[in-house]
Amino acid sequence: MVLTCQSLLHTHPNAWSQATTHPFLTGCHSGTLHSAQFNTWLVQDYLFVKDFTRMVGRVLGAAPDADIDVLLAGLGALKDELLWFEAKAAERSLDLATPPQPTCQRYCEFMASLTNQPYSVQATALWAIEYAYNQGWQRPGPMPEPYTEFADRWGNPGFTDYVHLLATQADDALVTASPEVQTQAEAAFLQVAELEAAFWQMAFEAANP
Ligand code: HMH
To answer: How confident is the model at residue 75 (pLDDT cuts 50, 70, 90)?
Structure first.
């Protein structure tokens, strides 16, 4: 049996549901989230995306020729995304020179550790990280202001297509992966799921000043 992105979702529905469903997101949808919670997420996610960009750069370095185009487009989108985060933080007068919280730090360390893994494992983790936000931000239904653009950033059709391409690339790499490496890919998927749930929880627990 060859592992695929789809089979991972089928084998681990609870882990994936916890990664993509959270009171933080339903709180955005219902308008009950406090600004301290949202602002904490915004600053910490900016720090996350900076390190995530470095990770995608390393995945590109390990990629076969056929995958370079998609990853390069992903990096281009991340350049825009970092500028967008900076603009959103400025609108809210948030200080981006904030230290990462332990959960953000843990996620960044996980991403750094992936560089020692085979490409198929890196590609699986990359897909899972992007798919988590693609699904998570869309699940509660249409987001009211001021969250509409946040939901749209990771829920728009172009991003959804990109996530499908990442799944195809991961699946293609997994076809030739040994059973041992497939087990590592499954472990990486589960780590992403756990870290995603923890990241939402970190922001949700932010105290209202
Ligand atoms: C925590 N996971 C987290 N932040 C993000 N911006 C993404 C995933 C992007 O998909």
So the answer is: very high
